[in-house]
Structures are given as C-alpha cells and as structure tokens.
Amino acid sequence: MVEACTWLWLDTCLCSPLSRSSAAFQLLKPVKTLNGKAVEIAAGLRHALAVTAEKGLVFQWGVGMKSLANRGLQTLPVPAFMSAREPCEVPGFGHVKVKHVSAGAYHSACITDQGWLFVWGSNKYGQLLSSDDFLPLPFFIQPHHFEGEKITLVRSGWTHIVARTGNVKLFVLICLQKNAFLTIYLWVYGLRQNTLCKPTYQPIRRFR
Question: Where are the RCC repeats (predicted)?
C-alpha cells in the first residue's frame, strides 16, 4: 500500500530566469513535515495551505505574506506561519476543527466543521470584512452576514471571496469604487427552481 503523502510543485520562474522549456522549471517535492495526513490543500500566489484529517488543523507555509504583514502590523510581531518555509500550524482556532481551506493571492480562508468562516492575511480590498488592513490571525466572520446560514464552500480570488451556504446561496464579498469611495458589497445569489435568481446586494463597509 502506498502511504498518503502531500507533494508540491515549485515554479522556479519566481526566483530564477529559467525558461519554461527548462527541465528545472518545476521541482516536485514531498511535504514531510505536516502533523497528520492532509485532506485538502490550497495555493495562493506565494503561500500554501493544508488541513489535516484527524484533528482538523490548518498549516501554512511560504513567505508571500511576510512583507505585507511587516507593513500592516508595523511594530507588532509577525506570526511564525507568515514566513515559514515548512508547514507551520496556524493558531487561533481553539478546539474547532477545520474542514476546508482556500487561498487568495495574499489572504486565506477556511471553513470549520460547524460551518463557520475564518479569514486572515491582507485586507487591502476589504474582502475580509474587517476595519484592519492586515489580519495576522484567523478572523471569524459573523454568520449574520450570510443570513445566519452555515457555509459549506469557500473560494478566494485575487480581491474577493465567494462563500456558498447549505441552501445553495452564493455570497460574494467584493470591493467596488464609486465617487472616490471604496465600498464593500455583499452580493447574494439564490437558486429558484434550479435557476439563478437576480442578485441582491448591500453595502457593508465604505471608506476612501
């Protein structure tokens, strides 16, 4: 029986001028430092996430968030997992088990077994629903933003997050600019007789 193992591919174009035709363009490397078997992985621009099966722990590695964390936190210490080159456990979940993870360019998101949504990382576009520019630790998004429903799936883009509930509603957290103001909108999509209804939206946060 082959033992389950997590592997990663390193795109060397971020650190060397190798051409895409070069055999060294992608390096296959096993990840041996996870505390448990990974059941789901996700990759951002320069960081990666994994969630383990038995304990539902989240691990992060990669240095993509380090410079943003230094600027956003200023004199505050940067958590170790923000600059780890090997899988490092993400703290802040207590005894809650995580089931799914998603990675944006410079932010991360996860869903717990209770259907709660946590986010952390760069909040440059306000998609993390916080007044802070950078979230160094997992931030719990209150369920009332999703009409009290449990989240079953989350996906992260460069500047937005899409969350799906058990009732097959899609909630899109996105930032739009109008009249020199940036406003975070929560777009809600619903299904009616297997047809996608016209979305409704509401402003959540407005800032210059």
Answer: 56-114, 115-167
For the cut 60, the answer to whether the pLDDT of residue 178 exceeds it is: no
3-state secondary structure labels for all residues of 25-73:
CEEEEEECCCCCCEEEEEECCCCEEEEECCCCCEEEECCCCHHHHHHHH
Query: Residue 96 and residue 40: Cα distance in Å, rounded?
Result: 17
Q: What residues have CB less than 8 Å from 95, skipping those under 6 apart?
A: none
Strand order in the sheet with 181-189: 151-156, 161-165, 170-178, 181-189, 200-207
Would you state the pLDDT for residue 17?
A: 37
- Report CA dihedral (123, 129, 130, 134) to the nearest 10 degrees: -20
Q: Which residue, 196, 125, 195, 112, is CA-closest to 156?
A: 125
In the CATH scheme, what is the code of domain 33-207?
Answer: 2.130.10.30
Q: How far apart are CA 109 and CA 59, in angstroms?
A: 12
Give the whole-angstrom CA distance, residue 101 versus residue 117. 10
Q: How many CB atoms lie within 10 A of CB 19?
A: 8
Predicted confidence at residue 198, as pLDDT, reads 45
pLDDT tens profile 75-123: 888 899 998 988 999 999 988 999 999 999 999 999 999 999 999 999 8
Mean pLDDT of the chain: 75
Residues whose CB falls within 8 Å of the CB of residue 198, separated by 6 or more in sequence, listed in order: none
135 and 92 Cβ atoms separated by less than 8 Å: no
